[in-house]
Amino acid sequence: MAAPLGLDYAGGVPAAHKIAAAGYTFVCRYLTSGGPGLPGKLLTPGEYAQLQAAGIGVILNWETSADRMLGGYDAGRADALSAATVARNLGVPDNRPIFFSADFDASPAQQATIDAYLAGVASVIGLERTGVYGSYYTCQRCLDNGTATWVWQTGAWSGGQVETRAHLFQRIGFATVDGVQCDVNEARQFPDFGQHPVPTLGGRKDRDRMQQLPATTAPLNANSDPATWPQRNYDVGFIGAYSFAFGCQEWGGRTTDITRGFLYLASWIMPDGSLRPVHPTFTTAGKGHTIADHWPTPAYTAPTNAVGITLNYAAPGGAYVAES
């Protein structure tokens, strides 16, 4: 099957229905203004609503100046605070990644500063949401160093190489859609490559591919910190290749936001009975993460020979794993 294709653009805004008619299924859009020179750069609430209505997935990016990452940790933290606010105001669930750009030919000597910038980002939105845009070499180093979870590689400065772990790949060259010059991108990881919504996992549409998990005891104060809610363990067994996303069902007890649960621990069960963390977030050191109503975590793929997953979670309305 050919990789799904998407667009990113800043010089204008193609109509959502024209994007869909041209065969593109997602867009990568900016949370920053481009000023008079790039009037179409900033994703607005109106455009976001139109894209969602047209069935176009939306991926978020933050880019001011090309080499902004050389500002280090403090710059990353400041940018993440701003990016998270813009994304929240658009209505994007707070478990979706945001990609931050290293839009230049970064050298190995600059990597420590890039890693520091991304550490600043992760201090705000969590490592599980932290993405990087950059060259093959930048993306490879970030993944190897564990400073980004999501990767959008550009073909520029990449020497013809493609990082196999990249979620997205930006081609060299352009396409014109609705009179707007756009970059073309390939989705490289399925079904979740950072877009919202993720069409083939979780939510109300795929209940035939969801394993329901038991509800947990409701907290005394529904609007308290979800990390303090009563939790329980549950094991899910499987045979062969497996990937899953964890999500929570609706629950009317909480009124302050759409948080409906908390995933504290998640580990793969290996044949010898040992446990291997699914992601650093879902360990005692990572301290888990809140789960919003019907917006599951990213998809996690089991290592070879794993025979199950064990989950420690709080979900007063019940939970599920959406299998792929």
What does this structure look like?
With about 325 residues, the chain is α/β, with parallel strands linked by helices. The chain has helices at about 15-20, 45-55, 70-90, 110-125, 135-145; strands at about 5-10, 25-30, 55-60, 100, 130-135, 150-155, 170-175, 180-185, 210-215, 230-235, 245-250, 260-270, 275, 290, 300, 310-315, 320-324. The strands form three sheets. Strands 1-2-3-4-5-6-7-8 form an eight-stranded mixed β-barrel, surrounded by four helices. Strands 10, 12, 13, 14 and 16 form a five-stranded antiparallel β-sheet that branches. A four-stranded antiparallel β-sheet has the order 9-17-11-15, with no helix packed on it. Helix 3 crosses helix 4 (about 110-125). The chain is globular. The two termini are about 15 Å apart.
